[in-house]
Amino acid sequence: AQFKVVGPGQPLLATVGQGIVLPCHLSQLMDARSMEIRWIRHEFSETVHVYQNGKDQHWQQMKEYVGRTELARDGLSSGSLDLRISGLRPSDDGQYICTARDADSYGEATVDLVVAAPFFRNAHPWMAALAVFLPLSVVSTALGACLFRRKVAQSRALGESFWPLPPAKPP
C-alpha cells in the first residue's frame, strides 16, 4: 500500500536539558512495525535513530545520540513514527528527516527543531528585539546629551554664544 510520511508542519521549540518528541506519522492508518524507520539530521545526513526488522539498530546511530533517543513503539501499530530525544543539547538544534520504507513504498517528512537556552525558553521575538533596542536607546541618548553639554561648554569657553543671534535688521 502507498503511504505518505507527515511531519508537524511548523518548527518545534524546546529548551536545553529537557526532552522532546519529534512527531511523525503515516498518512494512512497502517502498521509500521515491519517497516524500516530512520531518523537522520538533514544538515549532516547522519543517522540519529534506526528501527529495522522489529529492533532498534543502535550501532548505526551517531555517537552524540546513543542512549538519548527512543522510537515510541507503542504507536507503531497505528502508524506513529515519533522519536523521543532526551537531554537536549544546543547541537540538537536543526532539521531532522523522518523516513519510512517497506517493500513497496518510501516516504519522508521534515521536522525542524529549535533548541534554546533556558533563559529564553518563553521569549517571543519582540522580547528579544526590545532587549536589544532599550539599552541601545539609553546609550545613544546619554551619548547625545554628553556631546551637547560638551559643545555648550566649548562655546562658553571661547566666549561665544551657543545659540546664534538673529540677523540684524536693515536701517
Automatic annotation (TrEMBL):
A GO cellular-component term linked to this record: external side of plasma membrane
PROSITE patterns in the cross-refs: IG_LIKE
Family annotation (Gene3D superfamilies): Immunoglobulins
Alphabetical list of SMART domains matching this protein: IG, IGv
The keyword Lipid biosynthesis appears for this protein: no
Molecular-function GO terms, alphabetical: signaling receptor binding
Membrane-spanning intervals of the chain: 126-148
Ranges of residues in domain Ig-like: 17-114
SUPFAM superfamilies reported in the protein's UniProt record: Immunoglobulin
Record-linked InterPro entries: Ig-like_dom (IPR007110), Ig-like_dom_sf (IPR036179), Ig-like_fold (IPR013783), Ig_sub (IPR003599), Ig_V-set (IPR013106), IgSF_BTN/MOG (IPR050504)
Family matches, as Pfam families: V-set
Keyword Membrane: yes
Keywords of the record: Immunoglobulin domain, Membrane, Transmembrane, Transmembrane helix
Compartment annotation: Membrane
GO biological process, one term: T cell receptor signaling pathway
Superkingdom assignment: Eukaryota
Chief place of localization: membrane
Name of the protein this chain belongs to: MOG protein
Record organism: Thinocorus orbignyianus
